[in-house]
Amino acid sequence: MGKSYEMAPRKVPQVKTKYRTIKTEIPVPESMPVLEKLRKYEPISMSGQPLVVWDRAEGVNVYDRYGNKWLDFSSGVLVINAGHAAPEVLAGIKKQIEKPLLHNYCFPSEIRANLVEKIASISPGTLKKVFLLTTGAESLECALKLARTYGKKNNKKVMISFEGSFHGRTLGAQMLGGMPVQKDWILHPDPDIYHLPFPGEPRCKDKSFAFFEQRIDELGINPKNVCGVVSETYQGVSAALMPEDFAKSLRKWCDKNGAALIFDEVQAGLGRTGKMFGFLHYGILPDIFCLGKGITSSLPLSAVVGRKEFMDMYEPGAMTSTHTGNPLSCAAALGSIEAIQKNKLVENAAEMGKVFEEELRKMEKKYDCIQFLCGKGLVWGVQIGKRGTEKPDPDTAHKIVGRCVEKGLLLFAPVGLGGGTVKLNPPLMINEEAVREGCSVLDETIREVAA
Ligand code: PLP
After folding, report:
1. Is residue 1 part of a domain?
2. Atom 10 of ligand 1, residue of closest alpha carbon
3. Fewer CB within 10 Å, N or C, the chain?
4. How far is the CA of 23 from the centre of ligand 1 (A)?
5. What is the pTM of this model?
6. Is 285 close to ligand 1, i.e. is its CB under 6 Å away?
7. What does the alpha-carbon distance between residue 180 and residue 163 come to, in Å, rounded to a whole number?
8. What is the CATH number of the domain that holds 62?
9. Domain of 324?
10. Domain end residue (candidates: 342, 357, 384)
11. Which has the closest alpha carbon to 298: 11, 92, 8?
């Protein structure tokens, strides 16, 4: 289903604006040896992104070595919250390198202590215990393990997740995920993980909590056997949030049935949606949440944050990881959180989100190939497909992304759920001028591609 981009260089119009420069053919002929080396030695699965050879990135821009400059609406798959190479992140990493302390395993270190304290300080309520890991998928594996371990005490083992969800590509995370096409390889799917319709997805006809309960009943699940419910705060593939009243009812339902409510904030966390954590839009708190991606705006780090009773179940040495709290990643995370707070990037994401919505609604009115829009703050999904049908059009989405890149706007289209979504998620320090410029490139591209 996923597609690679054409390796043949194409003559494209030159672009020179404050945020974008395109002065070569795309892909750049001189970059072909790099692209060919990657095609030769990496698995095909790694060839899904537009053929821009990243050389340097700062703020909202990504540069190649050949004089081209892109306005980045990808944030490198929603990692670069504070901006590429944010000064606070760079300074933190440099200081740590100069010490030097590059690894500490689970031995105590001041930088790890400072980071877990910082994450606890920005986490609401009683969500004050923090376990650092490396990838988003790992944090979901851990959340699954915690919910199951907690449930085991009372013989509860059922996990509820949602259709269309994505939680990573390792075994447990992929079993939690709700995209059947990604799970062919799992020979023995966990029989106690169920997927229910996600009520935020526009194609879900019944968004009521009564429908959730009805499906639980139809699937023969005894609510008292449920140890955990896990959901992305917004679904990454479409950028759709849950209806607020659904989320509130879900919280009550979990309380009533003694199930842990887990939010996967790997995409939503650290300001992306215009609040520090996406679940704050729902006015409820989970028992556990997972962070990743934008936590460092750079280096690999993830975290599981939760209430003491969930986080303290394992004895010393029994829940650890080799690279837990790598000192460089901790320094990057402290720098990134400092930049987000000091530069009021959460507030900026909320403000810039309004500009995005205004621009995208104009496009939605003009172009029949936009089926629907979802999003909040600085994450938006433009679903491409014939209006009035539910069939996504991944080929057109792929074409739109390719053409935008030729015009100096960097973005991507996720492959999940049949594809067809063009995702827009720039760094949170983007300004209004750049948002409008990027949107005008998208508008022009959709007009050309739709015609
Ligand atoms: N959860 C969500 C919501 C994600 O979007 C992703 C990655 O795209 C993951 C988990 C997995 O994160 P990672 O790729 O770091 O394992």
Report:
1. no
2. 167
3. C
4. 34
5. 0.98
6. no
7. 9
8. 3.90.1150.10
9. 87-342
10. 342
11. 92
